[in-house]
Amino acid sequence: MCYTVSCITLMSQCLSWHRWVLCTNHTEPVKGFLGRFLRRKLIETEIDMNMRSNDLIKIIDWIPKTWQHLNGFLEAHSSSDVTIGPRLFLSCPMDIEGSRVWFTDLWNYSLVPYLLEAVREGLQLYGKRAVWEDPSKWVNDTYPWNAASLQQEGQSLLQLRPEDVGYDGYSSSKEGTSSKQVSQSDTEGDPLMNMLLRLQEAANYSSTQSCDSDSTSHHDDQLDSSLESAL
């Protein structure tokens, strides 16, 4: 019994001492985690194979930049709450051809569908907050693999088009706020509109009162007729 009580006391103390530490994707230590992880993975591969590849180093340096660029795109059109964590990029193979195939599949089947869905929801919540810039253009401009593979993969990498999320159908958040303020100020400053609104309220109130009086008189007539029949 004493052992159980001591365990419960210890657990309660541990819970009271425990604190959650939230780490966002755009601040340390999460921001630099992907680069550190991939560089360590690359060093281990170089030691095992006893060779060094400058092309692979360039690819490993490019992956974290791509991750940050995509998160910047999400923050511009939605919010930081929907940014991508580093987990999707940790499985990058440590060879040139394998990493190229891996990134193509990751881009087409994981990244692009998520980006489109997150931006679509962001437009519904916030409207247009930034000029549309397709992140696939940045990927093609900074593509770390050779030029021949760029010509092949350039056609297979999916693009993020504004019509895919209905970007042109939403108004700017600033424009929506200003239009609401202008319409409200115009209504408040127009005396004729204020008078018409007051007359409409008075008419609605009088019609409601007349309906109540009619229903009351009708109810009284029914009571009188029922009393007469009873007598």
UniProtKB/TrEMBL annotation:
One of the protein's GO biological processes: neurogenesis
Region described as Disordered: spans on this chain: 168-231
Domain named CortBP2/NAV1-like AAA+ ATPase lid: residues: 45-155
UniProtKB keywords: Coiled coil
Residue stretches of biased makeup (Polar residues): 170-186
InterPro entries listed in its UniProt record: CortBP2_NAV1-like_AAA_lid, Nav/unc-53
PANTHER family named in the record: NEURON NAVIGATOR 3 (PTHR12784:SF18), STEERIN (PTHR12784)
Protein name per the record: CortBP2/NAV1-like AAA+ ATPase lid domain-containing protein
Organism of provenance: Fundulus heteroclitus
Lineage of producing organism: Eukaryota, Metazoa, Chordata, Craniata, Vertebrata
